[in-house]
């Protein structure tokens, strides 16, 4: 039921919140969010919906992405982890160039 509410409020064609309301709340356009969600699902299996032992559907991908852990501001530990990953991949200082929403 919470998935249905989430979809009705933010993602269905006649959702409660308009595109402007979505963008104000989540600081990105709905289309960008959907693209990010699709990309994250391909890279990280955690974000794919799975079935539990009783074959009932678990949390949807949308629900997993909206948890507080992913919506909050990054703390210093998060930033350090991102910087280390970027450096390991040959991109030192990448955290400074993440804002490409222009």
Tell me the β content. Answer: under 5%
Silhouette: globular
How are helices and strands ordered from N to C? HHHHHH
- Count of runs of 4 or more consecutive helical residues: 6
Indicate the percent of residues in helices: 40-55%
The number of distinct structural domains comes to 2
Distance between the termini: 36 Å
How many β-strand runs? 0
Low-pLDDT stretches are: none
Helix/strand/pairing category: mainly alpha
Please tell me the overall pLDDT.
Answer: 83
> Main beta sheet: strand number and arrangement?
none
Please tell me how large the radius of gyration is: 16 Å
Can you give a write-up of this model?
This protein has helices at 2-11, 19-26, 30-43, 61-65, 68-71, 76-88. It has two domains: 2-71, no CATH class; 75-102, no CATH class. 53% of the residues lie in helices and 0% in strands. The chain has 102 residues and is an all-alpha fold. The model has no long low-confidence stretch (mean pLDDT 83).
């Amino acid at each position: 039921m919470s998935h249905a509410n989430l979809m009705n409020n933010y993602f269905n064609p006649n959702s409660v919140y308009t595109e402007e309301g979505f963008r104000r709340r989540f600081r990105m356009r709905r289309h960008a969010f959907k693209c990010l969600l699709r990309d994250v699902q391909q890279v990280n299996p955690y974000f794919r919906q799975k079935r539990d032992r009783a074959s009932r559907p678990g949390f949807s991908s949308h629900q997993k992405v909206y948890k507080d852990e992913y919506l909050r501001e990054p703390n210093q530990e998060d930033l350090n982890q991102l910087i280390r990953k970027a450096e390991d991949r040959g991109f030192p200082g990448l955290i400074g160039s993440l804002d490409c929403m222009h």
